[in-house]
Amino acid sequence: MAVAPGKKSEPTVAGYTLDDQIGFILRKVSQRHTAIFSAAFGNDLTAPQWATLAKLYEMGPTSQNQLGRLIALDAATIKGIVDRLSVRGFTETSPDPDDARRVVVALTDAGRAEAERGFALAQRISDETLAPLDATQRAQLITLLKAMS
Amino acid sequence: MAVAPGKKSEPTVAGYTLDDQIGFILRKVSQRHTAIFSAAFGNDLTAPQWATLAKLYEMGPTSQNQLGRLIALDAATIKGIVDRLSVRGFTETSPDPDDARRVVVALTDAGRAEAERGFALAQRISDETLAPLDATQRAQLITLLKAMS
DNA sequence: GGTAGATCGTTTGTATGCAAATAATTCTCC
DNA sequence: GGAGAATTATTTGCATACAAACGATCTACC
Fold first, then answer.
1. N or C terminus: fewer CB in 10 A for chain A?
2. Bridge partners, A95 (sequence order)
């Protein structure tokens, strides 16, 4: 017998088990992270919005598409996020004097303050997400995931 | 000096580096998986749609919310997915005779055929997603992620 | 200097995800 | 057996994601 009966609980075709697939597990882990994130930031910021503020804080004013590339958001998605952040006064956009195609995105004072307030929260979110793992496992996980990104 | 200048490339506040955060890395890894998935399945099925067919194949007819719970999709999301799969003839729904609240979701013959065709593709997608890692690393990663889900 | 190709940003359409509110039904427990 | 609580499904609203098509602008290269 190739498979011990009654031991594993999810038999399918040719040994494929949805619950063991990397894509399925990734989605569940991401869901848990999202839940932790919104418990910490509340309705204030979503994870992509936080990424946008944090990266702008780090890089200074950046063209919209370039900003999206830095945080892995495509042109359509970063536009929506910047629009919403701008409506709320965290970012502002202006034409690039050197390139009429470009829109430069910058933090407002309120956006800078929000970013500075966010770093502590964001750190806590990462810690809580990784809480089931010890320090060695955390380092392993990050290394393995980075190899796959 | 606490931090070697010029060594790390992403200095921010209090040592927080967006690019090293678990949430950010998870999003990028998920993006890569999504790209691999749609390259394999084309416009045929999305990952949640595949999860739905695969789980139905495994479990047989299941109430809609229960099905969603098994694959980590909330009631609103599983409804949309089942609706779309039903329009395309892969699933069908019927009232549960034992509980008037429930809707039972089942595979059609076409859905069963699609599922059987999909297992090989899905296996390939998982392999390709994990391709940067060797067998030991793959097992480690899956173990660590499962501990976090 | 002029054009072909690349880049930038926008828009549209579709598909998750998730929160919140609602109606219908079932369950619990006194 | 009946009221209150829980469950099931639906609907609405909002926020990512991503593909595709588009016009405007820039760059490369002849």
1. N
2. A103
